[in-house]
Every structure is written in structure tokens, then in C-alpha cells.
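User: I'm writing a short report section on ligand binding and want a predicted complex to refer to. Could you take this sequence and LJ64HWYM and write out the structure as C-alpha cells? A short remark afterwards would be nice.
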Amino acid sequence: MAVYTHLGAGDFAALIAEYDVGELVSAKGIAEGVSNSNWLIETTGSAGALDSNNKPQTRFILTMYERRIELGDLPFFLALLDHLSAAGSPVPRTIHDRSGGASRLVDGKAVAMIEFLPGVSIDNPSEAQANAVGRALAGIHLASADFIASRTNDLRPDDWKTLFDQCGDHLGDIDRDLPAAVDRYMPQFRAEWPEHLPRGTIHADLFPDNVLMLGNRVSGLIDFYFACTDIIAYDLAVTHAAWCFDKGGRVFRPEIGKALMAGYETVRPLSDAERSAMPLLAQGAAMRFAATRSFDWINTPGDALVERKDPVDFIRRLEFYSQNGRSIFPSPAG
Ligand SMILES: Nc1ncnc2c1ncn2[C@@H]1O[C@H](COP(=O)(O)OP(=O)(O)O)[C@@H](O)[C@H]1O
Ligand SMILES: N[C@@H](CCOP(=O)(O)O)C(=O)O
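Assistant: Sure. The C-alpha cells for the complex follow:
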């Protein structure tokens, strides 16, 4: 579920009246998602909000920011959406209100309206789809090269360590082998993290549920609420870790990995230094999600209507990269 806050018909009508998008037709809560409340809004449309075909836009996503988002970061996220969509990336633009604001407050909570994009999330990608995802990711890396705003990544190796430390003795309650895996792998990230690699604006959470597809085409990249300024190749490593395994992280799909990498490098070839660092970056990407999932596992109330995600799934991926990283990501010399 992802509707944490109840808004009534009057609330929606009053809010929509602040935008030049026509009259409210419907507002439906969206079940997917974890962090925020989302509604699909339909309106009668207006010349004030035109789609890419110059037709009045009638469908929007209304997001109310509920958790894990610093409100001070919201201008960065929303400006990034506008920058990327203006550059032609398949990213929803924000709909500004009548006074030009990209976000507003409703009962003390920030809300924003963004363009609805068509498409569905893919659970089990084909090679063609993985290739398209790689191209789309490289596309936003190139398109954000002249995006001047920046945001520090608050989920870097030291932060993963802090999250694990905050789990304390409960880490072993999730899985008895988890504390040993953390102790074994964590030091290398803090000692060897490749800070020298090219940096830029990254999505940092490009999981299948954050990509919308129509057939083999990426029609939408969404959920930029972990976006930040960090190592560009790390974003590719996150995407690789998220897309190239079966659901439990037990089976690696080599053909999907190859297609993703090939798609990415068609648009933005990796440097030798980036390629050499991929095995470590991929292990780090897996550790990052094991860290947030462990923290959330322990800190999500039992009665919360949110699906808890398994950290061990990502420890398996980490172990796989530790053993096979060099063959999956051959070093420049071959
Ligand atoms: N621009 C959009 N166009 C179409 N659907 C969207 C859009 N943004 C979000 N959604 C839908 O809302 C769901 C939750 O959005 P998301 O940003 O991933 O929320 P959360 O941050 O809570 O995970 C997505 O899975 C998708 O179904
Ligand atoms: N992708 C993360 C969870 C973040 O949730 P999102 O719905 O905001 O993408 C994970 O799988 O651990």
C-alpha cells in the first residue's frame, strides 16, 4: 500500500484548483510504492498543461511526501525531473501551480503533481528490455551533466555501517549469518571505495518498479527520491544488482547483465577505471540495499501496511559479485 494519508473529495478539489489543469474528475489511491502516498488524478484538462503532443494533459500523479525525504531536498528532486524531461529523457515533468510553485503544503505535508507516464513495471525483463534500461540510464547520466544543483548521497559506505550498527543485536534475528556477512564485507567498502571515479547526478534506486515500459521501450523512469550527486558508475552497479537476478537473489541472469551493460555502453562507454571498479561497486550496491532493508526490517511496525523487503536477498547478490565479479565485469585488459 502507499496511501498513508486520507484526503477527501473536497481536499482534492481545493488542491487541484491551485493548478491550471482543468476540473477534477477523479482521484484514485495507488497501491504500489513504499515511501510516499500517491494518487492518480484525472482532470478535464486545460491549455495550461499540454502533453508532448500539445494536447491538454488530463492524467497526473499527486505525491504526498511522507517519510525518508528531507523537505529541503524536494527542490533538488523536482528540478531534476524538470531538467531531465526538458532534455528529452522519459522522466515526468512537474506541474507547477498557478503561482509557479513546484510543491505545496497540504495540512503541513508537502505535495507535488507530476506528469503521468504510461507503461508497466517489468518483473522478468527480456534482453531487449534490459538493453533499453541500460540506454535509458546512460541517457539520464548524459542529460544531467549540465544540471547544476547537487545533493550529497546520504547512503554511502559509512552510512550503511551506521544503519547496520543501529540494528544492533537484532541483525542476527533477521538471519543468523547476517552479522558475519556484514563484518566480512563492510571493511573493504570503507577502505577502497573508488572516490576518484567521475561523479554526476545519479538515480541511485533504479529497480524494476521504478521503470515503466511499453513493450521494449522505456516509457518512464520514476521515483527519483534517492537521486544525488555521486559516482556515476555506482548507479550502473545499483541497476545491475537490481535487474540481473531472480527475485530471491539466488540466480544470476548473465544474458540480462550483458544486455544491460551493452545498452549502457552504447550511450555512455565506461572508462577503464570505471570498468575496473565495477566488481567492487556492484558488491557495494548490494550492501547498500542490505543495509536499508535490515534497518527497515527492524524498524517497521508489525502492523504497518508495507511489505518488508528481505535484506538477505541482497547479501546473496553481494556474495555472488564477490566470487564472480571479475568474470561478469572483465577488466579493461581482458
Ligand atoms: N509519473 C508517473 N507516471 C505513472 N505512474 C507513476 C508515476 N509516478 C509514480 N507512479 C506510480 O506510482 C507508484 C509509486 O510511485 P513511487 O514514486 O515509486 O512511490 P514510492 O516513492 O512510495 O516508492 C509507481 O509504482 C507507479 O505505479
Ligand atoms: N528499492 C529499494 C526500496 C526503495 O523503495 P522505492 O519503492 O522507493 O523504490 C529496495 O528494493 O530495497
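A remark for your report: Residues 9-115 form a domain with the Phosphorylase Kinase; domain 1 fold (CATH 3.30.200.20). The chain is about 40% helix and 15% strand.
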